[in-house]
Design goal:
The complex is a heterodimer of chains A (104) and B (171). By secondary structure, chain A is mainly alpha-helical. Chain A has 5 helices and 2 strands; from the N terminus they run ββααααα. In chain A, strand 1 and strand 2 form a beta hairpin. Classes of the chains: A mainly alpha (104), B alpha/beta (171).
């Protein structure tokens, strides 16, 4: 397991750069991770991240786009706008969670 | 120097540049419930990975985008040895309805939407839906009979033209 520095904090990451320890994440780290992939976090982003964090704590796996849209009521279209390109992976990365494994 | 040995930050390569030029064409030619899903699932996955995705509905696959049928696709055990049930059973009255009901339940249980809702998600994710002209002519259907977000009824040649350079999946 590699340790890296995001801002002032030391965090554990996997080979791709995803955080591996749920409890090492905080808002400053999220901002740092988002900046690293060219995203500036707005309230709309935070709503998604908050849902992902809470859902992961309950389910033990990262929510897919469909789950975020149906459970948090955030339309899929909006998720693509907030996290362009590969939304599911990008939002998991910023939320300090593993990549989602679900197909849909 | 700090006392903690920290590696340089690793930023995942989301491959945004690499996928920008990638295109996927999925030809859906089957109208059974179980054969509708592979195309929809692959399209959804590709869109989530930032791949431009086009679906072409042709022949029996037309049922997937025909308003009056899209919510009523069926699954039959007949001719499908993968159910590992005696084939004769599949021909009994009511068996297709029962098998369809069971499959719908299983699909629902894994959080996968029904066909109309799945198409909506694909369109919201930026996917393109196309209907085959020959199939429309054969079945005497027009735009009004089809799912609203179908972008057009086009010929096979037009579809090949639109998907220039795409990887193609035929289902």
């Amino acid at each position: 397991m590699t340790v890296t520095t995001i801002g002032e904090a030391h965090v554990h990451i996997d080979a791709e750069g995803f955080l591996t320890n749920y409890d090492e994440w905080n808002a400053d780290i999220a901002r740092g991770l988002a900046a690293a992939i060219g995203i500036e976090l707005t309230d709309a982003h935070w709503k998604v991240l908050k849902f992902l964090r809470e859902d992961y704590a309950e389910q033990g796996e990262t929510a897919t786009l469909r789950r975020v849209s149906t459970r948090a009521g955030i339309p899929v279209k909006e998720l693509f706008a907030l996290f362009p390109g590969k939304p599911a992976k990008k939002m998991a990365y910023i939320a300090g969670l593993p990549k989602p494994v679900g197909c849909v | 120097m700090t006392t903690t040995q920290a590696a340089p930050a690793i930023v995942p390569n989301f491959g945004d540049e690499a996928t920008k030029g990638r295109k996927l064409a999925i030809i859906c030619s089957k109208g059974n419930l179980d054969m509708a899903y592979p195309g929809l699932i692959l399209a959804n996955a590709a869109l989530g990975e930032g791949v431009e995705t086009h679906l072409f509905f042709t022949f029996w696959g037309f049922d997937i985008i025909t308003k009056s049928r899209m919510g009523e696709l069926k699954f039959t055990m007949l001719g499908n040895t993968a159910t590992h049930m005696p084939q004769g059973l599949g021909g009994l009255p009511g068996m297709t309805a029962m098998a369809t009901h069971q499959m719908r339940k299983q699909i629902h249980n894994v959080g996968v939407p029904d066909v109309p809702e799945f198409l909506a998600q694909i369109v919201d994710s930026g996917g393109h839906l196309w209907a085959c002209k020959l199939s429309a002519d054969m079945m005497e259907l027009d735009e009004g009979d089809l799912y609203d977000d179908v972008e057009g009824i086009i010929s096979a040649a037009d579809f090949i033209d639109k998907t220039d350079g795409a990887q193609i999946i035929f289902i």
